[in-house]
Design goal:
heterodimer, A: about 400 residues, alpha/beta, six-stranded mixed β-sheet, about 20% strand, B: about 190 residues, Pyruvate-ferredoxin Oxidoreductase, domain 3, 7 helices, about 40% helix
């Protein structure tokens, strides 16, 4: 049913449609509205049977989710920012144990300094935790990705993080098509766990593995993750068949077919980027967008295929690897290396690849700034690493102060 | 696309106003996107919220820099922040005040606008009368419907009833209807003059 609603509320209702049996919640902005919404649905009896556990920390939230999932319950939690950091140890355990927990990360910057606003630093910090990561472009996709996430998680027996831009999406009111319970029930069968903790048939999980087999355990985890590259698009296809709209998948190319310049990005900035690209296409400029929906596992082959023939690639990143620069850029570079090997005989030239860091800590990514960025890209005047809208006056003042302090 | 920026103070329901407006547009079959500027809101601090309305899906997510209409929920903001930032000469402005426009200390900015598109409405007084509380947000949307015609009064009232129930809904609807009538009447005066 079409409704005009807040992103967080839409996600809460979508998660409820997936019939989670255990929800562990600890509030942190900008995620809080989601678990608040779910608590109301559990309390009213609209979501039943479901155990809603108020825990004392994010570490406990993930630990409870691990216990619930290992005991055979469909488990869900949500967090943001420092909350995700605080649960990190348990996040890795859920990944290593292959427990199909679904967690929403309402993306928010990491401190210090404290900043409650959006960027991707939190989810990026967990990129090697053994979780799949899917990024939503808008609230409709956030809804749809959650429904797909439970399917993907349980089919692979792997946890899935659904990432949605904090505030930008979680607090935005927009039109959302919420499916019927019957549709979701048809799409998402009851959870059939691979392995269940059962007092009548006791086993240990997550026990110690020594040097004789640890490499093999990790290898098998890697192999299972790579299977997600096949499962994610298949589930997206089945979702499209069942619900009549395209959502999810690995990558989302937009007007890339004859593009010589491509902007690669994840999350809610894709909407603004598409408007900018449409405008430039109107002037005959051959520019397109590559949205990456699945960041873990990273779809190297699909990125390579989507960027084939593109001469200039800008990776717009909502995170900074301090001392390095971009994070997604390295992945795109690896994908392009493959493309170059494949096509070097045909054209020889390596495409330009630039990183643009944008939207850190909630700074809006504006149409005007994106146009300026693309102006520089198409004329090949971008720096290898650019901080969009960097306030040079502020930076210079602080640098001056630091130099003065050093001389003392 | 029609873009609305709403200025008010923490506690006046600025964010809710943008959400209600988006629901009213949605009820008319249009696409709408409402969102706040996010901060550590405190009661009384300046707050801004946005609403975009279009016949096509809305993808852009930047704050609204060039609004087609401005709703000012607290006239004291006119002296505190530049609420007119980015406003074009054809923009609509609706200000919550019981005072005369000329007394608000924004003569220069208002002079740049088309006079028939600038209106005041005593929304706080109407809210006090019908709700018993000085919350002008939903009330102003009644006036906004009269001033711009972008959404109908019926849709505004339906949005209010979707969001609230009981006395709060009834009071807001009654006050929004009064605000609509008030603005309609002053617009008619403008034409007659």
């Amino acid at each position: 049913m079409l409704r005009q609603m807040e992103g967080s509320q839409a996600v809460a209702e979508a998660v409820a449609l997936c019939r989670p049996e255990v929800i562990c919640a600890y509030p942190i902005s900008p995620q809080t509205h989601i678990v608040e919404g779910l608590s109301r649905l559990v309390k009213s009896g609209a979501l039943a049977p479901c155990e809603y556990v108020n825990v004392e920390s994010e570490f406990a939230a993930m630990s409870v989710a691990i216990g619930a999932s290992a005991a055979g319950a469909r488990a869900y939690t949500a967090t943001s920012s420092q909350g995700l950091l605080y649960m990190t140890e348990a996040v890795y355990n859920a990944g290593g144990l292959g427990l199909p927990i679904v967690m929403t990360v309402a993306n928010r910057a990491l401190g210090a300094p404290i900043n409650i606003w959006n960027d991707h630093s939190d989810a990026m910090s967990q990129r090697d935790a053994g979780w799949l990561q899917l990024y939503a472009e808008d609230n409709q996709e956030a809804v749809d990705l959650h429904i797909q996430a439970f399917r993907i998680a349980e089919e692979l027996s792997l946890p899935v993080m659904v990432c949605m831009d904090g505030f930008v999406l979680t607090h935005a009111y927009e039109r959302v098509d919420l499916p019927e319970q019957r549709q979701v029930d048809d799409f998402l069968p009851p959870f059939a766990p691979r392995q269940v903790l059962d007092p009548n048939d006791p086993v240990s999980i997550g026990a110690m593995v020594g040097p004789e087999a640890f490499t093999e355990v990790r290898y098998l985890a890697h192999r299972r993750h790579l299977r997600a590259l096949e499962v994610i698009p298949r589930v997206a296809g089945e979702f499209a068949d069942a619900f009549g709209r395209e959502s999810g998948g690995l990558v989302r190319p937009y007007r890339l077919d004859d593009a010589d310049t491509a902007i690669v990005a994840m999350g809610s900035v894709l909407g603004t980027l598409k408007d900018v690209v449409d405008e430039r296409r109107g002037h005959g400029e051959r520019v397109g967008v590559l949205g990456i929906t699945a960041f873990r596992p990273f779809p190297f082959a699909e990125v390579r295929r989507a960027l084939r023939g593109v001469r200039r690639v800008v990776v717009l990143e909502r995170t900074l690897s301090v001392g390095v620069g971009g994070v997604v850029t390295d992945h795109v570079r690896a994908a392009l290396d493959g493309a170059m090997r494949e096509t070097s005989a045909a054209n020889g030239a390596a495409p330009y690849l630039w990183t643009v860091i944008a939207g850190l800590g909630g700074r809006p990514i504006t149409t005007a700034s994106l146009h300026e960025m693309i102006d520089r890209a198409v004329t090949e005047r971008l720096e290898p690493l650019t901080f969009l809208d960097l306030r040079r006056d502020l930076v210079e003042r602080e640098a001056h102060r630091e130099r003065a302090a050093e001389r003392v | 696309m029609f873009q609305v920026r709403i200025h008010g103070r923490g506690g006046q329901g600025v964010v809710t106003a943008a959400e209600l407006l988006s629901i009213a547009a949605f009820l008319e079959g249009r696409h709408a996107q409402a969102f706040p500027t996010f901060g550590s809101e405190r009661t009384g601090a300046p707050v801004v919220a946005f609403c975009r309305i279009d016949d096509r899906p809305i993808r852009v997510r930047e704050p609204i820099a060039r609004p087609d209409a401005l709703i000012v929920q607290d006239a004291t903001l006119l002296r505190a922040v530049n609420v007119f930032d980015g406003l074009g000469p054809d923009a609509y402005v609706l200000i919550n005040t019981a005072r005369d426009l000329r007394e608000l200390g924004a003569a220069e900015a208002l002079a740049a606008l088309r006079p028939e598109r600038v209106r005041t409405v005593p929304a706080t007084a109407l809210a006090r009368e019908h709700l018993g509380r000085p919350v002008p947000n939903a009330v102003l949307l009644g006036g906004f419907a009269a001033l711009t015609g972008v959404v109908s009064l019926d849709s505004v009232c339906a949005a209010i009833r979707q969001r609230f129930s009981g006395r709060v809904a009834d009071g807001n609807v009654a006050a929004a209807e009064r605000a609509h009538a008030y603005v309609s009447a002053t617009m008619k005066e403008g034409v007659d003059a």
